[in-house]
Amino acid sequence: MDYKYIEQLLERYWQCETSLEEEQILQAFFRQEDIPVHLLQYKSLFAYEQVQKEVGLGEDFDAKILVKIEKPVVKARRLTLVSRFMPLFKAAAVVVVVLSLGTFAQRSFNGEDNLDYNYETYKDTYDDPQVAYEQISSALKMVSEGINKSQSQQHIADSLSRMENAGGIDE
């Protein structure tokens, strides 16, 4: 069978030049069971309208729409003075607990030591200011050397890690 007329209608359909009657001819053609293989790709396009007529809304469609449309009823809550200030009461309770734990921890760490805050009873360790200066200088020099040593070690470690990342060192 020659399907030249259908192919011409399809060409005109793609160029939007068909009339409604010609489109109905195409729809009727693609509704039949025996369609050539080269035209099967267009069957779903023209049979879509018929298939959609058969598909209907479900039984629960109205209920679903009404649930989405209706606004929920909001019940007003009575707020009392106590319920309004309840978050503040809770915050105050947390502050009291934290301060109590801090005080308890401080006393347990200090133990029964009675600290003497009377600075007038303190005595100098050195009688000679020059000896005290030398002791402080040597202590500060040791601290400075330790810091410089740790910085140089850190610099070496940074250099090594950069070389490893660049692929310069094979392990």
Shape: elongated
Element-level helix/strand string: HHHHHH
Number of helices: 6
Radius of gyration over C-alpha positions, nearest whole angstrom: 46 Å
Approximate helicity band: 55-70%
Strand residues, percent = under 5%
Major sheet description: none
Q: Count the beta strands.
A: 0
Mean pLDDT: 84
Low-confidence stretches: none
What is the end-to-end distance? Answer: 79 Å
What structural class results from the helix and strand content?
Answer: mainly alpha
Describe this structure in words.
By secondary structure, the protein is mainly alpha-helical. The chain is built from 6 helices and no strands. Helix 1 (4-14) crosses helix 2 (20-31) and helix 2 (20-31) crosses helix 3. The relative contact order is 0.03.
Write the layout of secondary structure elements.
Elements: H1 4-14, H2 20-31, H3 43-54, H4 61-69, H5 81-110, H6 129-166
Helix pairs in contact: 1-2, 2-3
